[in-house]
Automatic annotation (TrEMBL), chain A:
Cleavable signal peptide: 1-19
InterPro entries from the UniProt entry: GerAC_N, Spore_GerAC-like, Spore_GerAC-like_C, Spore_GerAC_C_sf
PANTHER family in UniProt: SPORE GERMINATION PROTEIN B3 (PTHR35789:SF1)
Protein name, as recorded: Ger(X)C family spore germination protein
Annotated keywords: Germination, Lipoprotein, Membrane, Palmitate, Signal
Its membrane topology: Lipid-anchor
NCBIfam families hit by this protein: spore_ger_x_C
Natural source organism: Paenibacillus thermoaerophilus
Gene3D superfamilies per the UniProt record, alphabetical: Nutrient germinant receptor protein C, domain 3
Automatic annotation (TrEMBL), chain B:
Organism lineage string: Bacteria, Bacillati, Bacillota, Bacilli, Bacillales
Species, as recorded: Paenibacillus thermoaerophilus
Pfam families: GerA (PF03323)
Segments crossing the lipid bilayer: 265-286, 307-326, 385-411, 431-451
Protein name: Spore germination protein
Chain intervals for the UniProt region annotation (Disordered): 505-530
Coiled coil stretches, renumbered: none
Family: Belongs to the GerABKA family.
Length: 377, 530
């Protein structure tokens, strides 16, 4: 009986051996965690840069041997190769620790690479067994690897700072997963945050819009605000408006869009209905009178309408369906989408008409001067 | 005389006679023969007293007792009563009826029974011309007074614990359950120790099959001595090679009483304050007596906490090893970098590091138990801190590992049942080795093996994981969730007891509902007895 059990146990454990085992052991001390990667176009292929933290320089108890190099808590390395993999292998061969890509938080793409197209890069990024689909993507102005290797004040690693910024309200974040979905479906296009370095600080100045996986433009300012409503992932932002004779800052907290296609013959019209809720944050008031919420709302409405129309025009001019109107149409009329429109969407989309209606509300007018009772209305 | 000769014949062949064998040797009518044989049996026993005297102008008699076990004054009083007895009565039967001022009397007809009782503290009285002896229960043995139980302390609940004296212990249970249905079946185990054992159960509530099985198993024990309940536990368990104990031990009379009322069987052993309770299920590891005294929400929350920490105590070191050596992608980046920083100077692989710390911790804990009680706890905690701190400073183990070990230690202390906790402490190490060899998969395989073993294990025929597996839905009210008392109307079904209901229907239906005021109506012609 006991022998039987022992035999069964041995079989179970032996079958474990076939699956994994101690030869796959990878102590933390033998691994270099790549926090962030940059990809640029180079003369003979790609230039890949990696940012690796140095645990030995990150404070904590000092003891025996640990990696160290100066007093920076990280090290940066970059290399050129015909493929991304080749460049990574070259770096691996001169690194004492195993490069480990499962902890990439953010991947920076150079502007030139984005203009040439990101399909090749995506292939490599997803083929790596240690990829994370939740890694954030960012396109940088100029060359990405020059951007990453910077010492910034608030965070330990530049990669961390970029990731925090991407996730803040500064821009509309995008992950590898989103990009894969958008690039593989007709009727939606990729949009990636666009980052610049200004006076040695990272700043997100716009949204890169792509057409068929290639960067075609950067939505900035009003166009970017409009994109916040259209792309289905609203991120709060601030707007400064002039209402009557006072200037007011409004924080737009919530926004949503509803798109309804209207088809007449072969003409397509999209009815875009936008709802938005804002909060008055500040009023620079010359008239000492209480700001009127309805008027502020109307001003915000007008602003949003013009923003959205600008954005739509911009998208049509650049043949980029970054707001995913094609997919809306697909859900509305799958049969015709399959047979006709999807085949020629990039020539159809610029001809599409839009009808924009905005409903914005602003509240928390509040008051600081005067008597509340006298203001009663 | 013949019996004595037979015994002597047997003594030549065999050096010693046990009590059982002496039961075949009858007492004779001659006091001289009996005395001679008793002296032979009790030779070189300085604590045995054999005193011969004469009943007033009548036959000779002798008392035999063990000094220190019997109340000497009471024996003296009895002798006095017999010595001044008028009429020279010689028949024992009549003596009992008229002169002996003793309530506990047992007639014995052979040397085995006589000696068994005398050695337990009774006093034997032999009268010439009677082929029998009377044993009188004048017992006066030294024992600890009742004090707070050391192993199971509570905030709320009775503060009395069992003592080493069997009679004290049975009386404590009897004080809690004043019912004629509380049975105490006496047994004697141990060829040399002749230890008194009491199997206690509630007649009509406990499953009679179970009671029979317990008694049968205890009776079939052939051992020279029983000094603690552990002897019994190991000899009557279903599966001897299991890492899990299949009986619960407790020092608390209230725990025993509650278990008896649920339909379990208690085994009391003379000479130890621990009482065995069978059958046991796995979930009792998470149940402290206090859960039933505090409000039910608190009881439930504490049980959930214990369950979580049970898992923590079992798997934390193994998970640490697995995740840091195979699955770094599972750790949040910032935490991973902290761990990497603290592990940077460590020269050992994670397994070795974990093993060093865990073994050191176990050693410290053991040292803390062996030390005198006053210094023990302080030394173990201090030692762990100092050793851990110093080891981290010296770069031998990482700070993360110290946290893991501390967490594991604390977690294993949360289980109210010590015999469950030590099983967990033991099983941690194989899991660590599995984790080191196969990562998380090893932990899963190990966990499955443990679970499979638990599912197969039985305690007196009751599956170890009941009432969860096999499922008894009604019994889930007292597994992890401790239902309020007004909902616990039925006794646990999986124990297959007799009487299922705890409450009378009428009372229980009105309790906890708050619909009608709780009122007792007295019918016409009925007088309130209270």
């Amino acid at each position: 009986m006991r022998i039987k059990i022992a035999v069964k146990l041995a079989v179970v454990l032996a079958s474990c051996l076939l699956a994994s085992g101690c030869w796959d052991r990878r102590e933390i001390n033998d691994v270099a965690f790549v926090l962030s990667m940059t990809v640029d176009l180079a003369e003979e292929g790609f230039r890949v840069g990696i940012l690796v933290p140095l645990p030995g320089n990150m404070g904590g108890p000092s003891g025996g041997g640990g990696g160290s190099g100066g007093d920076q808590p990280y090290t940066f390395d970059s290399e050129v190769g015909k493929t991304l993999r080749e460049a990574v292998e070259k770096m691996q061969n001169r690194s004492p620790r195993q490069l480990y890509f499962a902890h990439r938080r953010v991947i920076l793409l150079g502007e030139r690479l984005a203009e040439r197209g990101i399909r090749d890069f995506l292939d490599s990024a997803v083929r790596m067994p240690e990829n994370r689909l939740t890694t954030h993507l960012v396109v940088t102005k100029g060359e990405a690897y020059r951007t990453l290797n910077k010492d910034i004040k608030m965070e330990r690693f530049s990669a961390e700072a970029i990731r925090e910024l991407v996730q803040s309200d500064a821009t509309i974040p995008v992950t590898v997963k989103d990009v894969l979905y958008q690039i593989n479906t007709v009727g939606s296009d990729v949009r990636i945050p666009y980052m610049e370095v200004k006076d040695s600080k990272y700043q997100f100045t716009g949204i890169v819009i792509m057409s068929d996986g290639r960067m075609v433009g950067v939505a900035k300012g009003d166009v970017e605000s409009g994109l916040r409503y259209l792309c289905g992932k609203f991120v709060p932002y601030s707007e400064t408006l002039t209402v009557e004779d006072s200037v007011t800052s409004v924080k737009v907290m919530r926004g949503s869009r509803q798109v309804r296609p209207v088809i007449s013959g072969d003409r397509i019209r999209f009815d875009v209905r936008i709802k938005s809720r804002g909060v008055i944050m500040e009023v620079i008031n010359q008239g000492h009178s209480r700001i009127d919420e309805a008027k502020a709302g109307a001003a915000l409405e007008a602003k949003i309408r013009s923003d959205v129309e600008k954005t739509l025009r911009y998208l049509q001019d650049h043949k980029s369906d970054a707001a995913g109107f094609g997919q809306v149409l697909n859900r509305f009329d799958p049969l015709n989408w399959e047979t006709t429109w999807s085949k020629q969407w990039y020539s159809v989309f610029p001809q599409v008409e839009f009808h924009v209606s905005v409903d914005a509300e602003v509240d928390k007018a509040g008051m600081l001067w005067g008597n509340v009772a006298e203001q009663g209305d | 005389m013949e019996g004595v000769n037979q015994a002597n014949d047997r003594r030549r062949g065999q050096a010693r006679l046990s009590i059982d064998e002496l039961k075949k040797v009858p007492l004779t009518g001659s006091i001289d023969d009996n005395r001679a044989y008793l002296e032979q049996l009790l030779s070189e026993c300085s604590d045995a007293v054999i005193r011969e005297f004469r009943i007033q102008s009548g036959p000779r008699a002798l008392v035999v007792y063990i000094d220190g076990l019997a109340k000497t004054e009471a024996v003296d009083r009895t002798m006095q009563a017999l010595m001044i007895l008028e009429g020279g009565e010689s028949d024992l039967e009549r003596l009992i009826m008229t002169t002996l001022p003793v309530s506990q009397l047992n007639p014995t007809y052979n040397f085995g029974d006589l000696l068994a009782n005398v050695l337990s503290g009774d006093t034997g009285l032999l009268v010439d011309g009677n082929a029998s002896a009377m044993t009188m229960g004048y017992r006066d043995s030294e024992h600890r007074s009742v004090s707070e139980p050391e192993t199971e302390s509570v905030i709320r609940g009775p503060r009395e614990g069992f003592t080493e004296n069997l009679r004290t212990n049975t009386s404590m249970i009897r004080r809690k359950i004043r019912s004629p249905n509380l049975k105490m079946k006496p047994l004697i185990v141990g060829r040399e120790t002749n230890t008194n054992i009491v199997v206690s159960y509630m007649d009509g509530i406990a499953d009679p099959e179970l009671v029979r099985e317990v008694i049968t198993r205890i009776e079939s024990i052939r051992i020279d001595g029983v000094l603690e309940t552990g002897y019994i536990e190991e000899l009557i368990q279903d599966n001897g090679y299991s890492p899990f104990s299949q009986a619960q031990y407790t020092e608390r009379p209230d725990t025993v009483a509650a278990s008896l009322l649920e339909g379990r069987v208690a085994i009391l052993v003379d000479g130890t304050p621990f009482v065995l309770l069978v059958p046991i299920v796995f979930w009792q590891w998470f149940q402290a007596s206090e859960d039933y005294y505090e409000r039910f929400m608190i009881g439930t929350l504490l049980r959930i906490l214990r369950l979580i920490f049970f898992v923590v105590a079992l798997t934390t070191p193994a998970i640490y090893i697995a995740v840091t050596t195979y699955h770094q992608e599972m750790i949040p980046t910032n935490l991973l970098l902290s761990i990497a920083t603290s592990r940077e100077p460590i020269p050992f692989p994670a397994v070795v590091e974990a093993m060093i710390m865990e073994v050191a911790f176990e050693a410290l804990r053991e040292a803390g138990i062996r030390l005198p009680r006053t210094v023990g706890q302080a030394v173990s905690i201090l030692g762990a801190l100092v050793v851990g701190q110093a080891a981290v400073q010296a770069g031998i183990v990482s700070a993360a590992m110290v946290i893991v070990v501390s967490l594991t230690g604390i977690a294993s202390f949360t289980l109210p049942r010590f015999n469950g906790a030590i099983s967990i402490r033991m099983l941690r190490f194989p899991l660590m080795i599995l984790a080191a060899a196969f990562g998380l998969m090893g932990i899963v395989i190990g966990g499955l093996l443990i679970l499979g073993h638990m599912a197969k294990l039985r305690s007196f025929g009751i599956p170890f994981l009941s009432p969860v597996s096999p499922l008894h839905v009604k019994d889930l009210k007292d597994v992890i969730y401790r239902a309020p008392w007004w909902n616990m109307r039925d006794r646990p079904r999986f124990l297959r007891g007799g009487d299922k209901r705890r409450f009378g229907r009428k009372v229980s239906d009105r309790m906890g509902k708050g619909k009608k005021p709780f009122r007792t109506t007295v019918k016409q012609g009925e007088r309130d007895e209270n």
